[in-house]
Amino acid sequence: MIPFLENKQLALIIPVYNEGKALVANFTEIKKILDEDHIKCQFHFIDDGSKDNTWEVIESLSNKHSNVSGIKFARNFGKEIALRAGIESIDADLYLTMDSDLQHPPRYIKTMLELMETQQADIIDGVKATRGKESFKHRFFAKSFYKILKSVTGLEMDNSSDFKLMNRQVIDNLREFHERNLFFRGIVSWVGFNVVTFEFDVDERKEGASHFSFGKLVFLAMSAILSYTSKPLYLTIFSGILFLIFALIMGVQTLFNFFFGHAISGFSTVILLILITGSMIMLSLGIIGVYISRIYEEIKRRPRYVIEKKL
Ligand code: UDP
Ligand code: MG
Predict the structure, then answer these.
(1) Membrane topology type, per the record (predicted)?
(2) Quick one: pLDDT at residue 221?
């Protein structure tokens, strides 16, 4: 047992979705490395409504090992909510969130614990040094997303990941977040505290494929921005003002032409203007609409997730 962990309970929060095929092998691998590093912990799996035998695998692991527990969602709620349910459903002193597919390599856990001890950190934040094998589109999109996020919210999260080690104080604060739409990485950097980052190399996924399609990622990105800031709403106001100024100039010019004899022949200008203002209005309404739908979601005060079974 490493000294830092003496009289501290470490919980590994692992969301899983349709990972039945690889879960035993991945669990064995994580356990083997932790045993080698003399790290004791509680494995806490969140089955995010898997349709395969994931839950049966978790049950059998829990029967074999006293330090395995889990909860099962009644349906797929998404990884963000699974992480959230994970930290809410187990008591520990230290919480480590990681993927089940070994892409957050367990060999770094020891380093993370050491960093927490030596740097007196509250959060050890895993940052992807290399992004593993990703398509150009994916890489480009991720880069642009973090750029946009930084410019509208000020949150700097380049190559951030959900591979994080947090102490109890941080978790107690995270539990106070009651919103339904949350972006786990974002709220962790929002709460502050003493954050120490460390770089890790993303390993290849051995079995199956990523659950995040391009479309799902776009949705996640939009959701992240919307849940952090209302700046896009100000953007619509600014663009409104910009178009008003433009319209005034055009209006003056039109009147000038009217009084001083030049008949207007600029049909195309009219069409262009209609198109531009039309699209600006649609865009603004869309942004406002999305915020309103979020308010609606929040005021329904539904539970954020439904747990079907517990171990
Ligand atoms: N996951 C989940 N719910 C989902 C999708 C994924 O709990 O709806 C889990 C998945 O089982 C894995 C982790 O989240 O443990 C990361 O997912 P994945 O490897 O598919 O994503 P990527 O590596 O592309 O970020
Ligand atoms: Mg993965």
Answers:
(1) Multi-pass membrane protein
(2) 82
pLDDT in tens, 218-277: 888 888 888 778 888 888 888 888 888 888 888 888 788 878 877 666 766 787 788 788
Instruction: Kindly state whether residues 17 and 147 are assigned to the same domain.
Output: yes
Residues 1 and 34 sit within 8 Å (Cβ to Cβ): no
158 and 293 inside one domain: no
| pLDDT at residue 98 tops 90 | yes
Rounded to 10°, the helix 214-228/136-153 angle is 10
List the single range of 13-17, 122-126, 285-289, 295-299 with lowest mean pLDDT: 295-299
Report the atom number in ligand 1 closest to the C-alpha of 19. 11
- Structural domain tally of the chain? 2
180 and 271 fall within a common domain: no
Of the three residues 229, 251, 283, the one that is the final residue of a domain is 229
Hey, what are 1's tokens? 């047992």
In angstroms, rounded to a whole number, what is the distance separating the alpha carbons of residues 181 and 210? 22
CA of 184 to the centre of ligand 1 (A): 13
Q: Is the CB of 79 under 6 A from ligand 1?
A: yes
3-state secondary structure of 13: strand
**Shared-domain flag, residues 173 and 283:** no
Distance 98 CA to ligand 1 centre (A): 10
Residue of 58, 101, 135, 202 to test ligand 1 pocket, by largest number of atoms within 8 Å of CB = 101
210: Cβ below 6 Å to ligand 1?
Answer: yes
- Predicted model pTM: 0.78
Print the domain residue range for 223. 7-229
Reduce the DSSP state of residue 160 to 3 states and report it.
strand
